[in-house]
Design a protein that fits this description.
Elements lengths: L6 H19 L4 H16 L1 H4 L10 H24 L1 H21 L7 H17 L1 H12 L21 H21 L4 H17 L2 H29 L3 H26 L3 H25 L3
Helix pairs in contact: 1-9, 1-10, 2-10, 4-5, 4-12, 5-6, 5-12, 6-7, 6-8, 6-9, 6-10, 7-12, 9-10
């Protein structure tokens, strides 16, 4: 059974529809947005990437040490790259994110699967184009020592009235390419993927930059990733959901503690948080690419 035909996908569609309805009817204050995002990150966003050790080929203690050494080594190397070449690091972050979000949505093994590429680009490019000023300020902070942008700036809805004709043309082109790729490559599940496209796009059109992205990241990416991980774990270990949760708990707990300490000591520095996310994302993407390749559905 592929992801798009699962019960989870239908639940996500309903959940996204409800969220779109809520933001249409109510103006959520920044604190409400922040609390909701914090809950999502703690429940599914952070844990979905902290259980990568479960999928190491060598299950022995030595295998664990080798896995952690390589995992942390990749993070450290990427951190050094951020220090000496931040612009290249940002481009790399976008590139691996395009691939990772698209691959998880279609559970494909190829990096050249056009619908995957189109979806990965769309869910990252749309909020950036809609919130150009905030996104530009964030990228500038991530690649330089410029002054920090006030957090409140990231909780403003997009002003669609100021979109230039060039931006509109760009978005229409990206949407057209993605929808055309669905028609030619995913015709069997076309209606489901188009429904997803419409709901996620509507959500971005109605929400601030961080609120919109974090919800999409947790609802559409992290949840699906956890389901795929559970399916793999169940097949490999012949165990149920309780055992899977128990197995993923230790590192999830450690990750949440580290995240809590970071927020306590530093506050929520948005640019720093995204750099830290990129450090975790790179080895996580490598692990998940191997997982999708070894267990495509």
């Amino acid at each position: 059974m592929t992801y798009v035909t699962t019960k989870l996908f239908r639940i996500q569609l309903i959940g996204q529809l409800l969220l779109v309805g809520i933001v249409l009817l109510f103006s959520l204050p920044p604190i409400t947005q922040a609390v909701f995002c914090g809950i999502l990150l703690c429940v599914v966003g952070i844990p979905h990437g902290s259980n990568d050790y479960l999928y190491r080929p060598n299950k022995s203690l030595l295998g664990m040490l080798i896995f952690l050494g390589i995992y942390l080594g990749v993070m450290m190397a990427y951190g050094i790259l951020w220090w000496i070449m931040p612009l290249l690091s940002l481009i790399l972050f976008f590139s691996i994110s395009f691939h990772h979000f698209g691959q998880s949505n279609f559970e494909n093994t190829s990096i050249w699967h056009l619908p995957s590429i189109g979806w990965g680009i769309w869910i990252l490019a749309l909020p950036v184009v809609l919130h150009e000023n905030e996104a530009t300020a964030l990228f500038r902070e991530m690649t330089s020592s410029s002054s920090k942008t006030a957090a409140i700036a990231f909780f403003q809805r997009p002003d669609l009235s100021i979109l230039s004709s060039g931006k509109i043309a760009l978005l229409v082109s990206l949407a057209g390419i993605y929808l055309a790729s669905l028609f030619f490559s995913e015709r069997k599940n076309l209606i489901a993927y188009v429904a997803q496209f419409i709901l996620v796009s509507s959500w971005y059109l109605l929400t601030p930059l961080l609120f919109g992205f974090i919800v999409v990241f947790c609802l559409w990416h992290s949840l699906q990733s956890v389901q795929h991980q559970f399916n793999y774990f169940q097949q490999q270990q012949q165990v149920g959901l309780k055992q899977f949760i128990r197995a993923m708990f230790p590192f999830s707990f450690v990750a949440l503690i580290v995240f809590g300490l970071y927020v306590y000591m530093r506050g929520f520095q948005i640019s720093e948080a995204f750099i830290l996310l990129s450090l975790i994302t790179l080895p996580h993407v490598l692990v998940m690419h191997r997982l999708y390749s070894s267990n495509p559905h």
